[in-house]
Amino acid sequence: MSEILLDAVDLTKHYGSVEALRGASFQARAGEVTALIGDNGAGKSTLVKCLSGAEQPTSGRILLDGTEVHLDSPVAARRLGIETVYQDLAVAPDLDPAANLFLGREIPRKGLLGKLGMLDKAEMRRQAVTEFEKLGVTLQSTEVSIGSLSGGQRQSVAVARSVAWASKVVFMDEPTAALGVRQRGRVLDVIKKVRDKGIAVVLISHNMPEVLSVSDRIEVLLQGKRVARFAGADTKLEDLVAAMTGALVQEEAA
Ligand SMILES: Nc1ncnc2c1ncn2[C@@H]1O[C@H](COP(=O)(O)OP(=O)(O)O)[C@@H](O)[C@H]1O
Ligand SMILES: [Mg+2]
């Protein structure tokens, strides 16, 4: 069993009078896929936002490698090796895949031209092709704008970008929701490759067969709290459904 890499303890998040998280705990381990499941409104996206710096919890503690961290922004989280593929896909449609991969981390040209703000596009393209290939994502051309790619290819670029930079944790909020069956299989293959690099992958998905096929562990949120957790291999679909609806509550999971 691998070590706990990310440990969220008793998080609350209030939006005005709405309590999106009510003492939620969550753990993810290096080299494992942890699924985070729950009904609509359970607090999954809010939890991911708090753990990736997009939102700050109202109270609670977040530990990375055993050290308490304060994720004040997505940039702060990225510096610590935490990347996120958000539910509402965040790629820049007018840029090509390489430019998307390096968005916010562009490589400058060497020497004076670089100091004048010129970018080394050839180098970024070379690295982008390598990164995409590592993940089994082949694009016909790296010079087309993202907007002209299919939904599946766009999603692959968003996934490739986050996993190329992640060194510790990748959150994927419904990464396959908009995809067809074949593309879905590709994203699941990418998830397994990233896990095998020793990264903690956190998968949010409504697709229970998908969750059961790829997850090493499953944590269940209900009304802003963790109500159950399971080891992936020997979990039954009925147990997941029971936990999501509140019919099965494990006291020790809170
Ligand atoms: N920015 C926000 N402002 C107000 N309420 C929010 C906001 N974001 C989420 N909520 C509320 O918090 C609860 C949890 O939402 P969310 O985290 O999106 O759940 P999930 O991703 O599990 O569907 C819901 O009741 C939702 O309406
Ligand atoms: Mg959500």
UniProtKB/TrEMBL annotation:
Q: Which residues form the ABC transporter domain?
A: 6-248
- What start and end residues bound the annotated signal peptide? none
Q: Which GO terms describe its molecular function?
A: ATP binding; ATP hydrolysis activity
* Keywords carried by this UniProt record: ATP-binding, Nucleotide-binding
Does this UniProt record's set of keywords contain Nucleotide-binding? Answer: yes
Q: Which domain of life is it from?
A: Bacteria
Alphabetical list of PANTHER family matching this protein: CARBOHYDRATE TRANSPORT ATP-BINDING PROTEIN MG119-RELATED, SUGAR ABC TRANSPORTER ATP-BINDING PROTEIN
Its recorded name reads: Monosaccharide ABC transporter ATP-binding protein (CUT2 family)
Organism listed in the record: Amycolatopsis echigonensis
